[in-house]
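One thing: can you check what follows?
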Amino acid sequence: MTPPRYGILAAGTLLVDHVHLIDDWPEQGRLATILHSESATGGAVPNVLRTLARMKTGLPLAAAGLVGDDLDGEFIRQCLLEDDIDCRWLQTAALPTSMTQVMTNHRNGQRTFFHAHGCNAAFDPQILYGLHSQHRIVHLAYLLLLQQLETADPDYGVTAARLFHQLQQKGYLTALDLVSVDDPARAQRVVLPTLPYVDYLIINELEAATLTGQSLRTPDGTPDLIQIPHAAGKLLQQGVKQVVVIHCPEGAWAENRQGESLFIPSYWVEPQEIAGTVGAGDAFCAGVLYGLHQHWGLRETLQLGNACARFNLRSTNAIDGAAPLGELQAYIAAQATDHNG
């Protein structure tokens, strides 16, 4: 008898953020002083998996993707292993590990980014074509940063669609996240043919607007709670098999094939409590993936996603704000009590 599938494998982007605090932004050709430096894992795969790992649920977790044969690649691998994340499908490439140099101005907090695509640009779908594991969900992110998945396919339209179909045929549930791009034609060309092979689509309101061609904010800048449901419904019509989740800083909307839909506002955070916003979307995604994996209802799933995002804001990096599931659930319960008076 085949054991039931259990656990989450995340595939796609892995990188290192090298964060430098500088005294001020220099004029071109001038010198700035680095006051402090630190490195942290980044990219969807480490962010989602390490947030899930720190929930301490015992859920089997695995990473798939490419790192270089260099110090950054070893740093990513060691961080994942320290969080008990299976690295059997983490391959070493001849290219350098993808990385971002982040310059943070001490005077005003403004950040400037210098990114090297590195081996993420060479992510090969063959990594997943040969996948055999007992994980229940395979989550891929970020499509539109993985160039090899955008190539044309004679049968599916795009390589990403073929890959997701093969994963479903193997018995996996598939989840997809994107990166925001200012190129609607490209996004629609790559993503729309893939949606019929996606069980769970988890994206932000900018990405949803790009895919649907709808503006999802009102003229005063607030989320449009009429257009967001329309966008979710349109994405289901485009083929998403189970659930569409659209999130924004103010909250999240979910809709499923059974006709259930709802919006859950984000948890309030005092501005002085926010240490950083890096990885907040990935933290939200991790919470949602856990709820979907556990067959929770939409309300509980979005509440956990919002709580993970809220806790993420406590840290300057994408990981150190993550909390155990019990602490997250206690926070959710306390907020419900406060709200109900």
